[in-house]
Structures are given as C-alpha cells and as structure tokens.
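tokens incoming
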C-alpha cells in the first residue's frame, strides 16, 4: 500500500480518525520501513503538555456517569502481576479476581448483573502462562505474556524468539514484547524494525504489543518515531512502559503516541491499539485516559482490541469508588483484595 506523507500536527487536535460504521477490525499487516516518514516526525513538547494538562481540569464525570466510565475501564484492563516473587497460587488468585472483578453486592447494587463485567486480559510472566490459561478456562479471558527478556529486553534474539514461541504454545493469545531502547537512542531504526518483524512472525496469530519503555527514550520525538517504526513493522498495540522504569505512563507521552496512531490510521487505514502501563493506580487517572482517547481518536477506540490499561492496583481503587457511589463511604483496601 502506498503511503501519502503529510506533516504531523503537534498543536490542536486534528479531526478524529473515524472508521466506517460497523467496519470489521483489520489486523495490522505491517508495511515497509519508510525512513523518510520517520524523519518527518516532530513532537512539540510544550503543546502536548498544555493539551494533556487540560484533560483532568476540564473533564469530570459524576454519579451514574462516573460508574459507567469506571465499569468501562474494568473491561479495558490487563489485570497484571509481574513480580519477582510471583507464584502459581498468586496467579490463580488473580485469575479468580478476573472471573469476578467486583464484589457481588456492588454488582447487584449497580444493577449490572447482565453486563458480565470482566477485564480484557490477564498478564503474567511466561512461567505462569499455562497456570493462567487453566485458571481462566471457560471465561474467554485471554492470557497475555510479557516476553523478550522483560523488562530490559537485552537477551540474544534467538532466546527472545524461543520465549515468544513457548508462550504461544502454552496458550498465550497476546504477547507484550520489549524493544531494545539503545536502538531508539542511537537512531537505528532498521534494526528496531527488523527485530519487531521477527517478533511478529514468532507470535503467529497471537497479538503483539510493543513496549517502548518511554521513560528511557529521552525525548518525545524518540517516542513518536519508535511508535511509528513499531507500527510499520506490524505491531497490533504500542505500549508505554514495563512498569519497572523510573518514569512510566503519563498523559503527554500518551498523547504523542496517540497522535502517531491517528496519523498511521489516516495514512494506512489500519487501527492500532494503545496501552498505557505503569503508575495508573487511581480511578480518576483512568477516566483522564479514557477522556483523552475519546477526544483524540473517538469513542470507537474505547474497545478492548484498541485500548488497554496495564494495571495491577487500579481495579482496587475502581471497586472502592463504585462502593462509595452506592454507600457514600470509602471501604478499606483489604475489603477488595486482589491476590
């Protein structure tokens, strides 16, 4: 497919990229690396920060509307445990929470028994993929595996490819891979492109989310260019962080990546998903991200195949907020245990 290159806006948002009504989702087939396009990418940090800063101050939802947004956030969540002390028991408890993310009295109080509110996926290390698949049997909740030497990504390519293949063989439907940040810092876009293409091939039918490690990429220009290269290489999602960096997801960085998703869609017609991860622990921040996606890409993008939260503690605060809406009181965290 020939790509028409146009300048990327960095100030006010452009008209939203809206697909045709009821159009089926087409998976990203990948495109040739276009270094001219990559060279044209520019991000205006000041403009992005002003735009991102306006989201939380202008957007506030209350009462039943807040409850609706928070229920939506649950359905867009990759419920995650990625700790060095993870055990099979912890993963099984997390999967039990995925089956029933809200206490039954909250579900009844909201009158949403028929909505089957569940997270979009459960995300674990490769060692626990088979455990999670078994624990989620019959739910249609997919298992996502972090792969390619998560979180640093600095292992031999053959090792990383075998890890992807092993996770897919164990039943993972989604693979969250980690890029090698030095490729971005050195501007080695061909190497990054070739590696993502190899990862995509190893994933087969499993969807691939590319983790950029944005807090370690130095500039928003680097973030935007890395986003484009990963999308050209066939990424189904672009994701901010491993959650292990000093700086993880934030709204200005998210806006830069979302603008690249919009630009990519305008040029190719392909819809790419977005996943902010790391540090998103409050219901209020989750609604800010939902508002950002809605304003920049449209309501269509607020679906699990196009937007995810990478979260481990977010569900606890959402559950507390929903109970507060019903009772007027905030519950202690231990009443909403995760694992």
């Amino acid at each position: 497919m020939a790509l028409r290159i146009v300048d990327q806006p960095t100030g006010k948002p452009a008209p939203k990229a809206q697909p045709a009504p009821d159009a089926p989702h087409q998976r990203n087939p990948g495109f040739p690396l276009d270094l001219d396009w990559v060279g044209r990418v520019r991000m205006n940090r000041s403009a992005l920060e002003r735009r991102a800063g306006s989201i939380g101050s202008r957007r506030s939802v209350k009462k039943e509307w807040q409850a609706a947004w928070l229920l939506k956030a649950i359905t867009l969540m990759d419920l995650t445990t990625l700790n060095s002390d993870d055990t099979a028991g912890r993963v099984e408890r997390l999967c039990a929470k995925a089956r029933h993310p809200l206490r039954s009295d909250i579900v009844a109080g909201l009158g949403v028994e028929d909505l089957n509110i569940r997270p979009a996926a459960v995300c674990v290390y490769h060692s626990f993929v088979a455990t999670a698949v078994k624990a989620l049997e019959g739910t249609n909740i997919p298992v996502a595996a972090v792969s390619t030497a998560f979180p640093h990504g600095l292992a031999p390519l053959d090792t990383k490819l075998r890890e992807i293949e092993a996770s897919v063989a164990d039943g993972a439907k989604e693979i969250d891979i980690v890029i090698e940040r030095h490729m971005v810092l050195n501007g080695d876009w061909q190497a990054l492109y070739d590696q993502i293409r190899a990862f995509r091939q190893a994933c087969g039918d499993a969807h691939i989310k590319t983790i950029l490690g944005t807090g370690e990429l130095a500039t928003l220009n680097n973030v935007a260019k890395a986003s484009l290269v990963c999308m050209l290489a066939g990424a189904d999602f672009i994701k901010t962080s491993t959650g292990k960096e000093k700086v993880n997801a934030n709204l200005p960085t998210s806006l830069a990546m979302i603008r690249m998703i919009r630009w990519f869609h305008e040029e190719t017609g392909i819809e790419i998903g977005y996943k902010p991860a790391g540090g998103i622990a409050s219901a209020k921040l989750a609604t800010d991200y939902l508002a950002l996606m809605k304003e920049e890409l449209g309501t269509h993008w607020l679906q699990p195949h196009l937007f995810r939260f990478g979260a481990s503690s977010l569900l606890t605060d959402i559950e507390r907020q929903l109970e507060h809406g019903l009772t007027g009181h905030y519950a202690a965290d231990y009443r909403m245990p995760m694992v």
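note: Residues 1-16 have pLDDT under 50 and may be disordered.
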